[in-house]
């Protein structure tokens, strides 16, 4: 796929089914992630991959995090099923490194770029994906259960798989509507 075509036709795929990316595809997806701009070469990221039994484990961590906030059984059941919406979920984490010239925000942005690069790579490989965040990304119980440090931050959950349906290409937007020149 041509790079410009990829950038102009990329879309989220909210309905994903098996198969998940295979080992070679996953390696390509992760390799794309670590090629993004990374000031000072800090590698401020971690990618926690869940598939197979890992999806149920991630679901239980979601339940624990939700329960710690006082959620009801209905919400907890929903949390348990959230990772099952795709055959693979990658929890994308910013692991901020103290650096005099690279503030935490810049590192978070680099990890956001890594998340987008993974989704773009999946799309280029004929797969689908959707980047989700939500309250769980900021839930400190989930962070603790995932073994994250206090200054780590979940940037998102990248759901990957095969699109269940072919989504229509979104209408083209005009960049001129959001640009101004000095």
TrEMBL record:
Binds 1 FMN per subunit. One of its GO terms (molecular function) is oxidoreductase activity. The lineage of its organism: Bacteria, Pseudomonadati, Pseudomonadota, Gammaproteobacteria, Alteromonadales. Its EC number is 1.-.-.-. This is Putative NAD(P)H nitroreductase. NCBIfam families: PRK10828.1. It is an enzyme of class 1 (oxidoreductase). Residues 19-161 form the Nitroreductase domain. Belongs to the nitroreductase family. PANTHER family: NAD(P)H NITROREDUCTASE YDJA-RELATED. Transmembrane segments: none annotated. It comes from Shewanella colwelliana. FMN binds at residues 10-12, 35, 39, 131-133. InterPro entries: NAD(P)H_nitroreductase, Nitroreductase, Nitroreductase-like, YdjA-like. It comes from the Bacteria. Its cofactor is FMN. Keywords: Flavoprotein, FMN, NAD, NADP, Oxidoreductase.
């Amino acid at each position: 796929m041509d790079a410009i075509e990829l950038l102009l036709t990329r879309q989220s795929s909210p309905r994903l089914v098996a198969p998940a990316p295979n080992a070679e595809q996953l390696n390509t997806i992760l390799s794309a992630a670590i090629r993004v701009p990374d000031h000072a070469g800090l590698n401020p990221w971690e990618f926690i991959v869940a598939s197979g039994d890992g999806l149920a484990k991630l679901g239980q961590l979601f339940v624990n995090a939700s329960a710690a906030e006082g959620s009801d059984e209905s919400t907890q059941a929903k949390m348990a099923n959230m990772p099952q919406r795709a055959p693979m979920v990658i929890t994308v984490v910013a692991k901020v490194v103290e650096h005099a010239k690279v503030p935490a925000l810049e590192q978070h942005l680099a990890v956001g770029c890594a998340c987008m690069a993974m989704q773009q790579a999946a799309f280029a490989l004929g797969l689908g994906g959707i980047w989700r965040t939500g309250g769980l990304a900021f839930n400190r119980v989930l962070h603790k259960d995932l073994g994250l440090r206090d200054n780590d931050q979940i940037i998102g959950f990248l759901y990957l798989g095969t699109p269940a349906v072919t989504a229509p290409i979104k209408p083209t937007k005009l960049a001129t509507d959001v640009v101004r020149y000095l």
